[in-house]
Amino acid sequence: MYTIGRFSKICNVPVKTLRYYDDIDLLKPSYIDYETNYRYYDYDKMEAVKIIMLLKSLDIPLADIKKIIVSADQIQWNNIFEQKISELEKQKEQITREIEEIKHLKLQSNANGWIIQGRILSECFFENREETLVYTLRRKIKIQYVDMLVKNLYDQVYAFNLEVNGHLMAIFHDRNLKDKEADVEMLIPVKNSNDIDGCKIIAKGNYACVSVKGPYTELAAGYDALKLWIVQENLTQNGDMIEIYEKGLIPANLDLRNLRPDLTRHPADFITKICVPVH
């Protein structure tokens, strides 16, 4: 048996806490010397402490922990353990993402001598684009919910058994910066239409383009550069400006049934092409 002081150090639980657990009949000592009033604990009490600490980590009140320890059946214990496993798995995923991001920043710093990088704009250029069949989904939504619109788009592509044939695109028909809302149309090239509503053709023709390397928050600079270039070249815009996400959060080899953002790619490495038909 261990004295309360030794047991406290082994279990990393303050003596004051062990005495309190004794007072509320949550964790009784294995033996009490009534002449000295010293408390002693055996090895089995260590397992009890582990269980109490586990349940406390799930924010379960001590009164409920006492009831659970006394009366919990196997199903109840399994539910508790599964809840804790799920919580730890989420923490593990978060830590893994953070490690990958730090590794990326370390490599970037070693290679370039800096970490924080702004946007990099290409020269504006012409591109002769072929006719493209796309499946589209258009909604007026809050800007912060664009990722949900992307998920809904891919869910429908999967439901209609369409085969993806290119990079994700977006057209922002209208932006209300004051209310942080936008009329957004998400588009994805597909190989077949299956004669379903929601598919349309993006016309072939001559497009004015610019590529933006950097986070999505920097795309406004690309729009400004492209609009200025169109004026300088005496061109006429003949349709909506389209964002094409060539490298970004959506992985190249995506799984339509389990769409997950590519969090290993740093926003500084995103590449978005902005195109607009001109004549």
Provide structural commentary.
With 279 residues, the chain is an alpha+beta fold. It has three domains: 2-72, Orthogonal Bundle (Multidrug-efflux Transporter Regulator, Chain: A, Domain 2); 85-116; 120-277, Alpha-Beta Barrel (Multidrug-efflux Transporter 1 Regulator Bmrr, Chain A). The chain is 39% helix and 25% strand. It has helices spanning 4-11, 15-23, 43-57, 62-71, 74-112, 146-159, 219-232; strands at residues 2-3, 31-33, 38-41, 120-121, 125-129, 132-142, 169-176, 181-189, 199-202, 205-213, 242-247, 271-277. Strand 2 (31-33) and strand 3 form a beta hairpin. The longest helix is centred in the middle third of the chain and has 39 residues, at 74-112. It is elongated. The N and C termini lie far apart (89 Å).
Key attributes of the depicted protein:
single chain; Multidrug-efflux Transporter Regulator, Chain: A, Domain 2; 25% strand; alpha+beta; Multidrug-efflux Transporter 1 Regulator Bmrr, Chain A; 12 strands; 279 residues; three-stranded antiparallel sheet
CATH class of the largest domain: Alpha Beta
Please name the CATH architecture of the largest domain.
Answer: Alpha-Beta Barrel
Shape: elongated
- The level of helicity is 25-40%
Helix-strand string: EHHEEHHHEEEHEEEEHEE
Q: Unreliable runs, pLDDT <50, ≥5 residues?
A: none
Q: Average pLDDT across residues?
A: 86
SS-derived structural category = alpha+beta
Tally the structural domains: 3
CATH topology of the largest domain, which one?
A: Multidrug-efflux Transporter 1 Regulator Bmrr, Chain A
Please tell me how large the radius of gyration is.
30 Å
